[in-house]
Amino acid sequence: MDKNRLEAFSDGVMSIIITIMVLEFKMPKSTSWESLWQIWPVFVSYALSFFFVGLNWSSHHHLFHLASKVNNKILWANLLGLFCLSFTPFATAWMGENAFKSATVTFYAIILTLSVISYLILVHQLRSLHGYDSKFSKAFKGYFKIYLTIALNLLAALIAFIGLPKIAFILLFLISLMWFIPNHRFESHHTANS
To answer: How confident is the model at residue 32 (pLDDT cuts 50, 70, 90)?
Structure first.
């Protein structure tokens, strides 16, 4: 199987997800700055979701840059990840339009959690295919950051559920910032493979 087709399909789906999120913006009926301020939750929700999808795309790129082969299990694991990610525009719009109400932030945090779990499944399937002693597996061993993200996302869902959705949203934002810290293992493997 050709990994390039999988990458191209995934890139296309992620591009569509971002496009759908942008198209969800409703135009203010007024031309005043105040009318823009009134929809700040929509902008903030979009910004976090844009970065989340971007982080998914970047992680996916690193994953398949180092992968040398795929099989049917990888295709289905990848589709599971895209399926979870495809709920992002809906969760984003629901949360933004309702100004971070408890149920909306809880649902959003659950969608983020499912997306991260599906990514973990994809990494595990790729490591299994390449062999646990391969260069690929060595680059992607150790899941501390992923497990921490899952735990913190679930904590954010719980915080939102008990009635503190804005605090939960801030936590989700901080979690996304954690992923901007570069992984030097990937960089060294990219340099070695260039």
So the answer is: confident
Other beta carbons less than 10 A from residue 145's beta carbon: 13
- Domain boundaries defined on the chain: 3-193
Query: CA nearest 115: which of 153, 143, 160?
Result: 153
- Tokens coding 96: 């933004």
Locus of tokens 């993200």: 149
Do residues 107 and 47 make contact, with C-beta atoms less than 8 angstroms apart?
no
pLDDT in tens, 107-156: 999 999 999 999 999 999 999 999 999 999 988 888 899 999 999 999 99
Q: In b/e form, how buried is each residue of 65-100, taking b as 16+ CB within 10 angstroms?
A: ebbeebeeebbebbbbbbebbbbbbebbbbbbebbb
Are residues 104 and 94 in contact, defined by beta-carbon separation less than 8 angstroms?
yes
Say how far residue 51 (Cα) sits from the centre of its chain: 8
Q: How far is CA 155 from CA 61, 96, 164, 194, in A?
A: 28, 20, 11, 40
Angle at the Cα of 97 (from 94 to 100), degrees rounded to 5? 75
CA-CA-CA-CA dihedral for 88, 108, 180, 178, to nearest 10: -160
Reference 126, options 178, 184, 65, 181; nearest CA is 65
Q: Looking at residue 39, what is its pLDDT?
A: 86
